[in-house]
Amino acid sequence: MTEDMSPAERYALSRQRAAEQATALAPFREMYDFELDPFQIEACKALEAGKGVLVAAPTGSGKTIVGEFAVHLALTQGRKCFYTTPIKALSNQKYNDLVARYGPAKVGLLTGDNSVNADAPVIVMTTEVLRNMLYAGSQTLVGLGYVVMDEVHYLSDRFRGAVWEEVIIHLPESVTLVSLSATVSNAEEFGDWLDTVRGDTEVIVSEHRPVPLWQHVLAGRRMYDLFQEKTGPDGGRGRREVNPDLVRLARMENGRPFAAGRRARALRDADRERERRQRTRIWTPSRVEVIERLDAEGLLPAITFIFSRAGCEAAVQQCLYAGLRLNDTEARAKVRAIVEERTAAIPDEDLHVLGYFEWLEGLERGIAAHHAGMLPTFKEVVEELFVKGLVKAVFATETLALGINMPARSVVLEKLVKWNGEQHADITPGEYTQLTGRAGRRGIDVEGHAVVLWQRAMDPAALAGLAGTRTYPLRSSFKPSYNMAVNLVSQYGRHRSRELLETSFAQFQADKSVVGISRQVQRNEEGLAGYREAVECHLGDFHEYARLRRELKERENELAKQGAAQRRAQAAAALERLKPGDVIHVPTGKYAGLALVLDPGVAPGRTDRQRGFDHYDGPRPLVLTAERQVKRLAPIDFPVPVEPIERMRIPRSFNARSPQSRRDLASALRTKAGHIVPDRHRKQRAAAADDTEITRLRAEIRRHPCHGCDEREDHARWAERYQRLQRDTQQLQRRIEGRTNTIARTFDRICALLTELGYLRGDEVTQDGRRLARLYGELDLLASECLREGVWEGLQPAELAACASALVYEARVADDAAPPKLPGGPAKDALGEMVRIWGRLDALEEAHRINQAEGVGQREPDLGFAWPAYRWASGHGLDEVLREIDMPAGDFVRWSKQLIDVLGQIAAAAPEGSGVARNARRAVDGLLRGVVAYSSVG
Whole-prediction pTM value? Predict the structure, then answer.
């Protein structure tokens, strides 16, 4: 090619090549046996030019190459590089990658419970560790040149996202920031903010997937392509459309209206018969059928996402029961050798309780589960075997999609709905992108495959919308905390801290969003003017007439609510009067009919399991129904008061778990009271009939001139629209007022509360405040108050562990069962005192308008982990501890590690030489053993 060039062109090309060889990028590119992509080269060149970079690219596209170049630059320049990740599993993975490239002497690891070579020039760490370093002014920061923030889109996380913004805001100006993100739709907005707070930042966005992704729907025995490409007018590629076969299938499965009339009857009958035959060939394939189908088509290894831990474990069991085997004899031997090597440190007595042998059987067959409830060591082994091709089918929860380097040829989604902690909700385009991004292994697969299983009522167009939306917006979740406030005031003073918080991405987005809201207010005001004209009535002031009608409706609704509340109170009072042996008639619900009260269900002291103290939600009687079922009923089953219709003696020998006992007692119940017809509950006279306010409003409405208007109801409809739009407009105006300086206002409220409690004195941080500065976590202020008031003084190490567990533990779902089991003696008293202190802090937060619903403030301490923490710290065995609680081993390890972390903070914050500091360290020693100690990932 150079032969065709002129001498001048050849000279210019040689100069260009020489210049490229003189850069740090040239030797870096030679470290890889593949060519870098254009976006990687662009980002690396920007870094070498001294700019910060934000790289937004799909999962699996190789964003981390840019982070590794920052490491290369730091080592070349004799400076330090910190590589931060959101989770410890990613930190461990990246640490191993960098050690393999640069050797153990140059690479360190800091993850809260792991510290390896902390003085190395390259340190991999979790983002929280770097945040804590910045607040503590750690000497490790000296010489820091680059910080890589992997998975920076985590700043959207409502629980931990604020940490990312804290780091970005507080890093020294001399540090170059490398931000690696999934593809987000507002990368330019995020880049603008980075440019504001960090200086010159280049935004590089790539939406190109290195391995093409094909989307499918598996229905019955047939795999449908989700999209069908139309040929363009010039014979080339045209636009993508939803596969018409899928649309036809959905219409047939979900039903459609048929033509009316006599002539269409024969055609309609033929359609129905054809559809009936077709339906028998459509079903949602079982998990075993899916894996067998993928195996037959060469689409393994595959990750099947099931949004339930129990579902993942059940899927593995179903495959084992079906006799599914994906590994040959040689692969089985390799699996066993790796597993035995990686789990050699686990004591033999723990293997059975951890489900080791069932887990190993699945691995040897090439099948495994992967979820947060698993032992971390087990998860690591699954990841290693999957990457090596020795596990070919993994059933995982969505946590696997968060950064772990575990690509597959195919990804399967069982459903497009998941539990979000509050309700079952459709997955978002961002979540769909994150999950399906695992499909297609670069350098191995020519293409990746995303398979969605057919479900009744599936809408192919909606699925295509999910699959076609490749990006999602990045939203800040930044909120000031008590710990953040004292650390900021300590370093910068109140005024400068306020200014720093005003530079957060949260405030940046809030200020920008006000522009759009203001435009909406203007449009609403134009609409209100039009509605005002339509409401005008020639007989009088229709706005006044509409106000009277509105007041009447509100009063009627208010009385209806009061009546419902009164009926609920009467029903609850009647339930509280029940005694064992009362025969009642359950008025409604699944178990309506004759029932015998076994236990009235009025808890002693009216306590609830989650709170542990001073909470009651009504009687829940345990009854035996006439159909021999023993059930715990809820207040909702009793919309009206219930009275005993008969009494029966319950035999002492009665056992609710014995079918024979239930049968005999139910038979006696039917004989005793089956003939009694329950009294019908008489409806009470409506309160509205006697209400003077309602009488007055109705009279005023009848007297009003507009009441006689022929177009009254038309005017009323326009008045209702006017009122609704006016209400919306007022809400928008309040949002505009609320979004201006929101972060700073919250910071001011937090500082006011801390001043009242004596943690701050103007710009000065008191001794108590300096203690709070060393406590990180959701319940930082509660922990500090407990230390200040000496709540934990005199506790033994295991008792202190039980109390500290309430600061970290949070049950996954609300549980309406019995109160949690607590250790007795001083530990129980201390836990009670912690709850009382929290109640005082909660009242203070309310007084200072600090809103927990907005993610600021102290949540209620959860006592659910106190007993297992106490038992484990006391030296009891794993089998004994896990048998007493309904908790997977992986969750037990995770909560124990978080407890160890908070105990370390307590030891550091408590006065040196105090009993609390000493016992906190002893509690750590008691917890850090066995299954907790040998789990390398927290």
Answer: 0.67
